[in-house]
Design goal:
The complex is a heterodimer of chains A (177) and B (502). Chain A is of the alpha/beta class. Chain A is 36% helix and 16% strand. A five-stranded parallel β-sheet of chain A has the order 2-1-3-5-7, with helices on both faces. A two-stranded antiparallel sheet of chain A has the order 4-6. Chain B is of the alpha+beta class and 502 residues long. Helices cover 41% and strands 18% of the residues of chain B. Chain B is built from 17 helices and 16 strands. Chain B has helices spanning 4-10, 27-38, 89-99, 187-191, 196-203, 211-226, 232-260, 264-285, 305-331, 333-339, 347-352, 357-361, 369-372, 393-417, 471-478, 486-493, 498-501; strands spanning 12-14, 17-18, 22-24, 43-50, 53-60, 65-72, 77-79, 102-104, 146-151, 163-169, 172-179, 294-295, 298-299, 434-441, 446-454, 457-464. In chain B, the strands form five sheets. Chain B has a five-stranded mixed β-sheet. Chain B has a four-stranded mixed β-sheet with strand order 2-14-15-16. The longest helix of chain B has 29 residues, at 232-260. The chains are: A alpha/beta (177), B alpha+beta (502). At the A-B interface, helix 1, strand 1, helix 4 and helix 5 of A face helix 4, helix 5, helix 8 and helix 9 of B.
């Protein structure tokens, strides 16, 4: 173990420069984030992930945000275990009818101010599962959504861009009137 | 001992079913097959419904013979398989929820996929008039000092939703009961009446981590039905995709299991290796998870020199770095203290449930569809099937380690021997009804797809995730372990929620 740790000291880090925030996402968020938020949160957001019925593809790529290449925590973003600790809910999947109630409960358990990011094509409108007897549809059918990150699944870079745009708005909210 | 062929002779064999036979049988033959399952002479491969029939896929473990028997049930009842062979229990509950068919004698008649939220009962049945489902009652465990811990469906980590009800005595788990179905999307319902293209897209979204395995199995089933022969190059590229998926998932799992024992160093390094596979996949095939590349008839993307180099570079990187991580795992006593003798799955249970994948192979069941069914190109590739008998978390880690090594070797063989040729073939339009079935080895175990085409459209498609025969075993292995070891046991199983819920 010592050898492995020692090597890591001298090797260049895997971590890459963060991408630029997504312009489209910045526009979508323009109305979502206020100045009060910045005062309370600083440049840091806690994220609670909720799988509301996804195929697990989005979860795999959300997991990747924690690996050394993307290292999401260096940007002030971290995943937390409880909605009570969260500022942001990242919701995946078409919302299934069997998950609807759990999603609503989790949303209400999250303190204000809070933002909801719908991840993936299914999160937008149910994707290829829309129209099923077992599917409600996109996340916005159940709880208010501030930002959509499209993709099947979105790449970790696309998710970082969206989340950085969110952070930027939280940040700008402090100075903008 | 009668062979599966004899069973076929007892029934009325359908002609349009490929590659294995399917026979419509009467109740006595059905019951005979059930008793053979119960006596462990055959294994249950799948059990699924239609509006007025049930189908059961059986494999003879010794000869790898496969057959499907079907029972017409115009009165919407059939003799329960689960009554004598418990691995069928949840499948029969699911058949009831979707089709309203009643398994007579089924010991557990609670709903499984139906959480009383759909606004409809028996959504795939012809007649849907039915009373409301009864409220769900969890099993009880009585005794001094027992308490319950309810977890989920929203879990603390970034994982899929499901509910676990633990009954514990102090730290020790006395009973775990799972309740799944939260991610039920009605995929089999969505597939009915659609084109092959749309159904293949849905099949690739049954379980995101197995998108290759599902597209592979679905395509092979469709090709069996249509009697299509896939060109060599496409067949080999499919195996390449399947091994890349296996490699990425096993690397992720090895790290994640260690992480659940709070050993984050291996997790961090394995995540880097996993990422290198995903990036190579993206460079070679344009998608990190390799989605929508296998389609009925062939593959949609070719591999060029740049892609080959990207994959080779990822392999070299893993070959260079992975052995140190394995060595670290093997020499860290505090980590092994958590994994050795934890969550032991007995060989008898693994055999009874025909548990596939790393779970079966860590408990003395060597079945691997790549070897047992030897579909091309695996019939001309060299690889070993690692097997252990201990059945604990440690054994499941070691099986994954060995399978990473096997996948590396397989990918190298495929890259060096990849035949030239076209990427696909097209089917002639066929009006008549055709049925096909396929079993493909995913990273989690054997994925089964059965379908019937009519006039070029899907009439009925059933997709059976390996998790159906693994989830119930997790309930068994956690017994008498401490609650704090559940994440470790669960991760070492890594069953699919979405694949099971469908």
């Amino acid at each position: 173990m010592r050898k492995l740790l020692f090597e890591s000291l001298f090797r260049r880090p895997f971590t890459e420069l963060p991408p630029l925030p997504d312009d489209a996402a910045v526009t979508e968020l323009a109305t979502a984030v206020g100045r009060a938020a910045r005062r309370r949160l600083g440049r840091s957001l806690s994220i609670r992930e909720i799988d509301a019925g996804s195929c697990n593809g989005c979860e795999l790529e959300i997991h990747a945000l924690n690996n050394a290449y993307y290292d999401i925590e260096r940007l002030g973003l971290k995943f937390v275990a409880s909605p009570r600790h969260a500022d942001v809910l990242m919701v995946t999947g078409p919302v299934t009818r069997n998950m609807r109630e759990a999603l609503e409960t989790t949303y209400h358990a999250t303190p204000n101010p809070k933002w909801v990011v719908a991840v993936g094509d299914c999160g937008r409108d149910g994707g290829c599962f829309a129209g099923s007897y077992a599917v409600v549809g996109g996340v916005a059918e159940v709880i208010p959504v501030d930002l959509h990150i499209p993709g099947c699944p979105p790449t970790p870079t696309a998710m970082l861009r969206g989340l950085l745009a969110l952070l930027e708005r939280v940040d700008a909210g402090a100075v903008a009137p | 001992m009668p062979s599966l062929i004899d069973l076929m002779l007892e029934g009325r064999e359908t002609e349009q079913h490929a590659p294995w036979p399917r026979a419509v049988v009467d109740v006595s033959v059905w019951n005979f097959a059930v008793s053979e399952l119960a006596h462990s002479r055959w294994s249950l491969l799948g059990l699924w419904g239609e509006p007025s029939a049930v189908h059961m896929a059986i494999i003879d473990g010794w000869t790898a013979e496969i057959a499907v028997i079907s029972l017409d049930c115009p009165d919407r009842v059939y003799p329960s398989v689960g009554l004598h062979h418990p691995p069928a229990l949840r499948l029969e509950r699911a058949i009831h929820d979707l089709f309203g068919l009643t398994a007579q004698g089924l010991p557990d008649t609670r709903c499984w996929l139906d959480h009383d939220q759909w606004g409809v009962r028996f959504p795939l049945a012809e007649r849907r008039d039915a009373p409301k489902a009864a409220p769900y009652r969890f099993l009880t465990a009585d005794g001094h000092g027992m308490h319950q811990i309810a977890v989920g469906p929203v879990h603390a980590g970034i994982i899929e939703p499901g509910h676990f009800r633990f009954t514990a005595s102090g730290e020790t788990v006395v009973r775990l009961e799972q309740r799944l179905g939260y991610t039920h999307k009605g995929i089999e319902g969505l597939m009915a009446g659609t084109s092959l293209e749309r159904a293949a897209q849905l099949a690739g979204r049954v379980s995101g981590d197995s998108t290759v395995a599902y597209a592979y199995a679905f395509s092979r089933a469709a090709e069996a039905a249509l009697q299509l022969v896939v060109p060599d190059r496409a067949a080999w590229l499919r195996a390449l995709l399947a091994e890349l998926e296996r490699l990425a998932n096993h690397l992720g799992d090895i790290g994640a299991i260690c992480n659940d024992a709070s050993f984050s160093l291996i997790h961090a390094h394995c995540s880097v290796l996993r990422e290198s596979v995903l990036r190579a996949s993206h460079a070679a095939f344009g998608h990190r998870l390799l989605r929508d590349i296998i389609v009925p008839g062939g593959v949609t993307r070719d591999l060029d020199a740049g892609g080959t180099d990207a994959i080779q570079a990822a392999l070299d990187n893993i070959r260079q770095r992975f052995p140190a991580l394995v060595e670290l795992y093997d020499s860290t006593a505090s980590l092994q203290d958590r994994t050795v003798d934890t969550g032991v799955l007995t060989a008898a249970l693994a055999r009874q449930y025909a548990a596939g994948g790393t779970i079966g192979r860590a408990s003395g069941r060597s079945f691997d569809a790549r070897r047992a069914l030897a579909y091309p190109p695996y019939d001309s590739l060299h690889f070993e099937i690692p097997m252990l008998n201990e059945g604990d978390v440690n054994a499941r880690i070691w099986i994954r380690v060995r399978e990473v090594e096997q996948s590396l070797a397989l990918i190298e063989q495929i890259l060096s021997r990849l035949p030239q040729g076209s990427l696909g073939t097209h089917a002639a339009h066929r009006r008549e009804s055709r049925e096909g079935m396929a079993v493909v080895e995913g990273f989690r175990g054997d994925v089964l797809v059965w379908l019937r085409l009519r006039d070029g459209l899907i009439e009925r498609c059933h997709l059976r995730d390996p998790s159906w025969f693994q989830w119930p075993l997790l309930e068994a292995v956690i017994e008498n372990n401490i609650a704090a070891d559940f994440p470790l046991c669960n991760k070492s199983f890594n069953c699919s929620y979405s694949g099971q819920d469908l």
